[in-house]
Amino acid sequence: MESIPYHMFISGFVVMFLQHGITWAQLAVCSENDIKFEITQCDKDNGFWRVAVPVNESLLCSPSSKPPLRVHGCDTFCPAGHYYSVEALECSPCKAGTYSSGNAQIYDDWPEIPSGFSTQMTTLANSGRSSLFTDSRLPSLSSCSKTTWTPRGDYISMQGEEGCMSRLLLEVDILQQTGSVDFEYQFPESGTTMFTFNVLSSDCRTGLSQKALLGDAISKSGSTPVRIFLDPTTRNSWAAVKTDLPKGKHTLVWTGISMIGQQDSSRKSIRIRKVQVSGVNYSRSCTVCPAGTSSPSGSSTCQECPMNHVSAKGSGSCRACPESQYALPGFLQCFDRPPCTEKDYLRKIGPCQSDGQGDLSFKWIEPMICKEDSSTSKLPATIRIPCPKCAPGTVRYNATACTVCDEGQFAGQQGTCQACPSGTDPAFKYEITSWNLVPYHFDSFCWSNSDLGCGKDTGWQLDGDKLLSGYGHEDDVLLVAQLFTAGFRKKISSDVYGQLTFEFDLSCKSPECQLDFLLEDTTSYETVKVKTWIGPQSRTKFEFPVTQNSSLAFTWTFTKINMQGAQLTSTKARQFGQDVARIFGINLTNTIDGGADKCQPCAGSGSQCRRCGPGQVWDTELTNCRTCPPNHVVSEHDASCVPCGENLVAENGKCETNCRVSFLGGKKHYDLTPLKGFHTVRTQHFFPSGGEEYYHVFNISLCETSPVVCANTAHQGSLVTSKNSVSGLICRTTHLVGDQSSNTTAVHSFVAGKELTHISTPDEDATGKVFAGVPPEIASSLAPDLYWHYRAIVPTSKCPTGKTTTIAMRCSKNSTDDWSNLLVPSECAEGTCDGCNYHLMWPTIYACPVCGPEDYTTVRGECISSQQKIYYHSNFYCRETNSSADLIKVVRCHSVPYSVQVLIVVLVGLGVLLTVVLAIFYKKGKKFEQRYTKLVQDASGVVHLQLPESCVDEHDLDSGQDQMDNGGTFDEDGGHFDLQIKTPSQTIFTKVKKAITKNSKRTLSNPIRDRKDYGGSRNEENELLAE
């Protein structure tokens, strides 16, 4: 019982007196058996009061015989096996059948959640930044109802659901200067669940340091708060953790987290079976040992009864069962032994001898609970049998084991390895037809709540033509068998890489017996339940087409009862000990490993077809190797020639980029070489309501051929170790944050991009849609985004085509050159909305197109000292790659301003043109003047002809003048014409004279006719004159 303040006792008595209407003097004095002692809390004076009170409230008596006693000193502690006697005020040893841990609290019985413990359940979507989580895919609180801590008798367990988190809390008060907490747990390996342990002080902050958590030998800093990320346990083993606690009040917190976007249909439960806190207040009484255990006087713990022994609650020793009965350790009672049968012993084949035979021996399953007598089965004697044959595709390499052949070989009919002919490869497979030896790449184990629940550690038993889940196990065991493969060859159909076939049956009395067939990706740890069979099943053949090419584990699990409600069966006898699952044969085809008993045509290059060189594939029609076309590479998935994507080139057998890309027929060029290298990107921090702050880190290899690595980390004091590392061009890790941001632990690493497929501009890509709400600085028509597409082809049931990552690089003149401005979709703050496709955006100036010749505007400066500067200004949407000096060009020029030079040239040109025009018109005017002045007629009818003097002879001039002086010339009718001829040409004169005379006659003879023909006569005269 906890100590309580002294004033609470006084107020309690006052209330009791008032209720009963009596005074202290009226009460009778309590006897020794009617009182008990209580103590108050330690006060500031380092002391407390011991007060006597009635044993129960209904007893009305006065404990005046035992007045309150003041005790000095609050640092009294009792050793283990003792308790503090309030009556004697000293430590006393525990009686037989009880125990005490001294100043420790022990929790190892879980029929219900013990006093002091509490649970909290929340969802990762229930964040302090609710706007970041608007995806309807995320779970609500109601859907996380199964993610809680549930007591199961001897342990408490939690089984998670995607996006859910559950915490188990225990409040403790460490009174000594140094205390501790010890606990045992089980945490199966899982890529989908995390398990942490933390200690919060009274102000709800981490109350531990690395020194406190991990000890002085590990940490020297001793001040950095840290959370313990618990390592997974193997099979059915339990791990133990011990942590020091400083003095004061603390809250111990165990947290199970199921990550968002990592679905797992068979999430394994986390279990805690024992918690011990040391350094707390001393025990005031001893704890009674539970049934099935015992303890002598002064014990600190109860010991479990050995095999075939039982005990009642509070027993000081265990009693043996009769010979005809049995009891497993911890059982509460003895049960009758069933008769022994052939199902109660194991068969074992010994090493083969030189004569080709080996020993077949038998032994009882342990612990042996059956009854062996003359009327039941006896243990068979050892016999000699022929050595069992190896599985198809394997050969015997020593007396006891079979193995596969070396690379390029197959197992022939003679039991030896032979090389495959040229152009062929081994047809690998896993075919198991007999179960005399453990098959290659096969494993099995048994898991149980108790140490003796499994009759055999491996659980499953080899039985010649079948594999048995095994006899002799308790009802609550989980039996697991697994077949592993590294992957498959090229597809055998449109979407199938291989096929698994197996035959089985279930022989059960329990209606809840269950066989599950699961598929686990050993890289991502994602497990998918393929098929479940419940209850008895006759022999059944099941075929499963494999639609993903990755490293896989095919898993069979068998349970006899419902494991969700399973508790230790120590309270009842084994009911379903004979319930078994039997697997008769397994055949997995088209693998890249395993055994081969024949060869087949090459499926590709590299390890799948060694006879072809780099960049070559096997042509099944031509039966030889052929080189892939230009800019093609050999696919690692189906060994065929595949073209490199947009803006990628084939180099060294891979599609690569040099960080220089072009679009729109070469009109848009991008140069991202300054970004080439390895980058680390952090997302924003997430704050779930449970307090587990975390963020994601993307490691990115940009324009590099070598990959980046992501690894889970485990803090061991000042040392940080990595494990479960993965590599690729893009990988992501989740970091959980302690009280200091520098102190984080990386968990859940996976590859988000194994290869770069292509680089494109905006289209109907999903990345463009999820970032539609982010306005660009520059219109996409001027500076379109660059989409870098990555993929990781590791198909899973949740992501049938694997994971993809798209990085959208957006032109931004205002962003820095680092990755600090990385954006994730507002509706999917973790970078993905479905757990398969990741979207990131990086605003950077290097995503702006490089300025080309058409992107410049030219500005000329003033001509100074015969030199002129020409300035080139680039447009706002492109990235300038030239230096400022290169954007200025200096040319020679004249001192006269350019505008004046142009004016002078124009004026001179106009002057020349005017002069030429005037000259042409002058020449033409003179010509017309000469032509039209040749014939002039005045009012007297005299025709003046002016002819060139060069054509006149002086003799002719004289003759003409004489004729004129002699009276002129007369026509035939006697008409007189006075004709003055200034031309000396006689020929012209004669022709003119004849024309005039003829015309004159026509006029005189017929004036009317002559007037009508005047025009024609004038035309004739003109013709003559022209001649």
UniProtKB/TrEMBL annotation:
Pfam families: GBD_ELAPOR1 (PF23031), GBD_ELAPOR1-like_3rd (PF23032), MRH_ELAPOR1_9th (PF23087). Residues 1000-1027 are annotated as: Disordered. It is found in: Cell membrane. It is a single-pass type I membrane protein. Residues 1-25 form the signal peptide. Residues 1008-1021 have a biased composition (Basic and acidic residues). This is MRH domain-containing protein.
